[in-house]
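Please, structure for the following, as tokens.
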Amino acid sequence: MWLIPRFLGGGDCVSLEGNTLAKVGVYAVRENRILFHNLLAVLEGGKMEVFKPQKEFLLIFNMGDGKGIFWKKNWVWESRLAFLLKDYIDRKFMRTFQVSGELDEKSEVIE
């Protein structure tokens, strides 16, 4: 007998048995594809996939003053360059989801 899971989830609202994950957006983003696949698998009777989290990730915090804090492994630094790197990465990521004229809008970096 095939059992339908009681719930599916991703991001900060779930925990994985045997894994302690930091509450960072990179996991939510990477879980999306598998969550979508598993929703379809439940609806169509297909095989579900298991999320395998990456071990290392980059964090850049926007400090709100034009600076960022860059953190990866044991390397941490605060600077304008860290903010600019975060802004570049975030804008590049968001462009993948643009569906209308937003791409034509001039991007501005907040000073």
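The chain has a mean pLDDT of 82. The longest strand covers residues 68-72.
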